[in-house]
Amino acid sequence: MNTTFNEPKQNTLLENPKIYRKLQINHTRNKQQDHTQLLDEAAAAFKYEDCKDVYWNPEEFSLLYGTPVWEQASQSQKVILNQLYWVAYYSQIISAEIATIFFNQTSAAGLYAQEDFRLVCDMLDLESAQERAHINAFQTVSNQVEAALFGKRIFSYTMRGPFNETMIFADTNTFKRWWKKLQLQTFGLLSSDNTFLACQYFTVRGVRTLNGKLVQHKLSNYYQKHPDQENAPIPANISYYHFMDESFHFNSSTIISHDVIECLKPPTAFEKLVANLGLRGCQKDHYHFSAAINGIFWYDPALYSAIYQVLRSPVFNMSDIEAKEMMRLSFTQESEGLHRSYQTHTEAMESYKVYLDKLNYVWQSNKQMSLMASNSIPKYLETQKKAFSSSFDESSFPGSTWECLQSGSATSIIGGRAS
Ligand SMILES: [Fe+2]
Ligand SMILES: [Fe+2]
Questions:
Q1: What is the tally of structural domains in the chain?
Q2: Residue 27 needs a FRET pair 20 to 30 A away by CA distance; which of 9, 62, 179, 250 works?
Q3: What does the pLDDT look like over 385-413, one tens digit per residue?
Q4: Which ligand lies nearest the alpha carbon of 127?
Q5: Does 47 reside within a domain?
Q6: How far, in Å, from the CA of 174 to the mean position of ligand 2?
Q7: In this structure, what DSSP letter does residue 413 have?
Q8: Ion ligand 1 — residues with CB under 5 Å?
């Protein structure tokens, strides 16, 4: 039967068999190797008690590694710092993945308006379902650990929506949070009805994933190189399974943002503007680096309260004065940890540049990552010195004794979602 109509020509993916094939291979392999079930089983089997005495990551991926806190920590405290890196790291990943699920869906809506884009949308549906399994696994572990160690949340949080500040420890305030929310909502609305912006979201997602890839590859190696894989700690398995799924997500970001985008009409001035503002937003989000956590671009002054709580907790048992002094030494002075974090920041930035290099709609300031490149160790130290003295001048953090910290929201995790 003849199904040809006399209609204006639309974009069609099938006219680009090479790109279509790339998408098909990526989607088929992801479906075949899907780690959802393994992650669900790992999360269900996780008992902190079973792996509370061992490392879960390579040693250098420990909270405050290479800082004075690390240097003076006992072996058992180092184990906890290693596990807390896992908890803190994946708490940040949860936040990013909540946003990813939403934007996968708005982008799929924008892309489904084109002929033959069903494959792209099916691929994104699978990825979103995988993200939900990832989040569940990360939350299960983090909740148990923080309930056991602190009886309250420090890095983890109750479930939240996609319009929150993605960086959980950011340089922000009420106005900035509101503005960010408005920007995210606007981008969601625009991308669900604009094919170019829907595709361009994957440029942002690709850039953001590059840094994750760098660190998560090293975290996943811990399981792969474990001498006794059968008995490796479950969080190390989770890092590995997650990395496996994410490598397909990274491929799809690349195919959509580098190849599929070429099948579309060139962007209008407005589309270019929105796309570049999105990339500039990435640079802003990844401007800082943290002495406490290598590979997550947190703003350390926003992290002081969390670190203070860790040091005052029964794990370290420091007095108020000891905790503040250890923090002063760790945050306001150069350390191996700070240099390692800066190194990761630089590596990430270089990989973003390569990723954006061939996209001709991207502004030079984004291609060169000039905002991100403008941060440095001297700037970091200057910021910390100012922030540190003003934090402590105001006689410090809300509730400066452990007893006080334990009341209030502290008990919400106990008997709640932590099992
Ligand atoms: Fe994920
Ligand atoms: Fe992902």
A1: 2
A2: 9
A3: 999 988 876 555 544 444 444 443 333 33
A4: 2
A5: yes
A6: 29
A7: G
A8: 97, 131, 134
